[in-house]
Amino acid sequence: GGGGGDDDGDDDNDDANADMRSDDPYQHFAAVLMNATQTERGRKFAMRLEYKADGSTTSVLQSILPQLRSSNPVRRRGVAGAVKNCCFDKDSAYWLLNEVDLARHLLYPLAGPEELEPDEKVGLHPDLWIEGPDKVRESDATTRLLLVESVLLLCASGRRSRETLRAKRTYVILKVMDMTEEEEDVSTRVNDCVQFLRRDEEGTEEGSSDARAEEVYRGKRLLALPAPSASGGIGAGKAESSADYDDVD
């Protein structure tokens, strides 16, 4: 994607983003957390449960998820990176999908204004379609990439995770999103997710998907980018891929 004669419009967007960022003293916390979660210790910190006064539990990760809907693109990108890093913790996949309901948080920014068929809405969280034509899809390509790669890591964490993602109709949102996706890197990752979600249904050998998934986890280049990428180059331009999923088909 990318390129074209809309430089003036891009400059206007950059100016607006710069103004927005300069007025937000907390925007870089997400980028710091994204850096911290590149380590196992940082991921444990982000996902450590704390008990609230009413007896319920929460975590740093759960407290920052609403920022995926922030008007500040720096916040959104940093949080998406931290979330992706937490998805590397394979043992936490069940908790992320079932207790945190992470799929809904990941898919919301990827949902757009397109009208869904009634059968496509079955099993889909209302948040993902209730806004109708007013819904705006995430405009920053790198943030979209981080969100889709988070879904891919969850797909790769095991068959039960994929069953949960299928039950939550993840495929519907990804399919519709990909129809308008202009960034090849993002579209490629969407296709990787779809292949994972379909593979079990096609009756492949038990465990073959999980064996292939292990290859995803072995790569050290898969963690989200360090903080500078969270604050620089925000916009709808080319996604900055920090991943190499070439072994996943």
Distance between the termini: 22 Å
Percent of residues in helices: 40-55%
Question: Would you give the CATH topology?
Answer: Leucine-rich Repeat Variant
Q: How does the overall form come out from the CA principal axes?
A: globular
Number of domains: 1
List the total number of helices. Answer: 14
The assigned structural class equals: mainly alpha
Which CATH architecture would you pick?
Alpha Horseshoe
Order of helices and strands: HHHEEHHHHHHHHHHH
Instruction: Please state the CA-atom Rg, rounded to the nearest Å.
Output: 18 Å
Strand content: under 5%
Spatial ordering of strands, largest sheet = 1-2
How would a crystallographer describe the biggest sheet? 2 strands, antiparallel
CATH C-level? Mainly Alpha
* DSSP strand count: 2
Q: Mean pLDDT, nearest integer?
A: 80
Poorly predicted runs = 1-12, 216-221, 226-237, 241-249
Brief sketch in words of this structure:
It comes from Trieres chinensis (Marine centric diatom). With 249 residues, the chain is mostly helical.
Please describe what this structure looks like.
This protein is an all-alpha fold. It has one domain: Alpha Horseshoe (Leucine-rich Repeat Variant), CATH 1.25.10. It is built from 14 helices and 2 strands; from the N terminus they run H-H-H-E-E-H-H-H-H-H-H-H-H-H-H-H. Strands 1-2 form a two-stranded antiparallel ribbon.
Task: Name its key features.
249 residues; disordered C terminus; Hgh1; Protein_HGH1_C; two-stranded antiparallel ribbon; Leucine-rich Repeat Variant; mainly alpha; Protein HGH1 homolog
